[in-house]
Write a structure and sequence with these properties.
single chain, 2 strands, globular
C-alpha cells in the first residue's frame, strides 16, 4: 500500500499540482463577491471548490491523503528529514513536535481560514495581496518550473518556514496551517467513507494505528477530530489484526483496488474541471 500511495501521489503531483490553489481561489472568489456585493459566478475556481468538496463528502479526504501536491511535498520533506537525521546524523529518533501539542496546533488552520475569509469579505484582501505574501503562489511557480519569486519575497520566506516545519512534523502544513484542510475537516462525510475500528477486537494495549497516524487520530474516540483524518490509510497497514475497515475494503479483498478506483475518479474529475495540466 505504501508504494501504491507514493505512486498515486507522484502522478497527481505531476498532473494536478494546482488543484489545491484552484479550490481555495474558489473560496476567495465567493467572499470577494460578498465584499463587492456582486452576483457570484460559477467560474473555474468555484467549480474546483465544489468538485473537490463533493468528492470529499463522498470519499473522505482522499484528495488530502493521496493527491494534494502540498501534502505530497510535506511527505517527501518529512521522509528526507528522517533519512538525514537517522542515517547521516546518527540520531536515534527524528526531531518532532511533541504529540501533546498537536490537537491545539491543529486549530490554527481554522483561524487561518477565518482570517483570510474575513479579509476577503471586508474588502482588505486585495490590499494584503500587494505585499506578495502568499506562499502557495510561490509553490505554484515552482511546480510550473518557473524558478523565480517574481517579487514574492515574503511568500518565499513563508514557504521556506513551512518547509522547515514539514521537516519536524509529518503533514505539518496540512494539520496546522492549511485553510482547505480546515474546510475539508468541517465538511460532512458519508459514514461509509470513514475508516472504522472494531475496538472490541483490538489487542489490549495496542496503539499501532494511533502511533502511525500522521495527524494523531484515535479512530472512533476523537469525535470532532475525526474530520482531521486525511485518509492516508497508514493505520490499515500496521494493524496486527487487520481490524480497521471501510465499506469498500469489505467489498473487495484486494485493498489496492479501492485506492486505484478513487484515484481514477479523482483524475477524471480533474480533467472535467480542467485541473489537469
Amino acid at each position: 500500500m505504501a508504494l501504491l500511495r507514493a505512486a498515486v501521489q507522484a502522478v497527481f503531483f505531476v498532473v494536478m499540482p494546482g488543484a489545491f490553489m484552484a479550490a481555495f481561489s474558489g473560496v476567495k472568489s465567493i467572499f470577494l463577491a460578498v465584499s463587492e456585493g456582486s452576483v457570484l459566478e460559477l467560474n473555474s475556481f468555484v467549480a474546483a471548490l465544489l468538485g473537490l468538496s463533493g468528492f470529499t463528502v463522498l470519499f473522505g479526504r482522499f484528495f488530502c491523503g493521496f493527491a494534494c501536491a502540498f501534502g505530497t511535498l510535506g511527505d517527501f520533506v518529512y521522509w528526507l528529514s528522517g533519512l538525514v537525521q537517522t542515517k547521516l546524523l546518527r540520531r536515534k529518533k527524528q526531531v518532532q513536535i511533541p504529540e501533546r501539542f498537536v490537537p491545539v496546533l491543529q486549530m490554527i488552520k481554522y483561524l487561518v481560514l477565518a482570517v483570510i475569509v474575513t479579509a476577503c469579505a471586508v474588502g482588505i484582501y486585495a490590499n494584503l495581496n500587494q505585499y506578495n505574501w502568499n506562499p502557495w503562489s510561490v509553490f505554484s511557480f515552482l511546480t510550473s518550473l518557473r524558478f523565480t519569486l517574481n517579487g514574492y519575497i515574503i511568500g518565499g520566506i513563508l514557504l521556506a518556514a513551512i518547509i522547515v516545519g514539514m521537516a519536524c512534523k509529518e503533514r505539518f502544513f496540512c494539520q496546522f496551517l492549511c485553510p482547505m484542510g480546515a474546510i475539508f475537516a468541517l465538511l460532512p462525510q458519508f459514514p461509509f467513507s470513514a475508516l472504522q475500528r472494531d475496538e472490541e477486537n483490538c489487542i489490549k494495549g495496542c496503539r499501532a494505528c494511533s502511533m502511525k497516524c500522521p495527524v494523531g487520530i484515535k479512530l472512533e474516540k476523537d469525535g470532532f477530530r475525526n474530520g482531521e483524518c486525511i485518509g492516508c490509510e497508514k493505520c490499515t497497514g500496521v494493524c496486527p489484526k487487520a481490524n480497521i475497515t471501510r465499506w469498500d475494503r469489505k467489498l473487495v479483498r484486494n485493498e489496492m483496488l479501492p485506492v486505484i478506483v478513487k484515484a481514477v475518479l479523482l483524475l477524471g474529475l480533474g480533467v472535467l474541471l480542467r485541473l489537469v495540466r
